[in-house]
Specification:
- By secondary structure, the protein is mostly helical.
- Helices cover 57% and strands 0% of the residues.
- It has 2 helices and no strands.
- The longest helix is centred in the C-terminal third of the chain and has 23 residues.
- The protein starts with 6 loop residues before the first helix and ends in a 5-residue tail after the last helix.
């Protein structure tokens, strides 16, 4: 059983903590970098969508 942290989950957690995508700790071009970025983007996109819903029509 592996105890290594999941890069996707780390990226999600970073986005929840408002850590910018540029803070990705993995080597650019690596699978871990891509997974981290995907997790971050998933949360960041959902947050942006939620914010924009409240500003329409103002």
């Amino acid at each position: 059983m592996s105890t290594d942290p999941d890069p996707f989950e780390q990226g999600e957690r970073a986005a929840h903590e408002n850590i910018p995508a540029e803070a990705n700790p993995y080597h650019d071009g690596s699978e871990q970098h891509a997974l981290w970025a995907s997790g971050h983007e998933r949360v960041a996109s959902a947050a942006e969508a939620g914010e924009s819903e409240g500003t329409e029509g103002t």
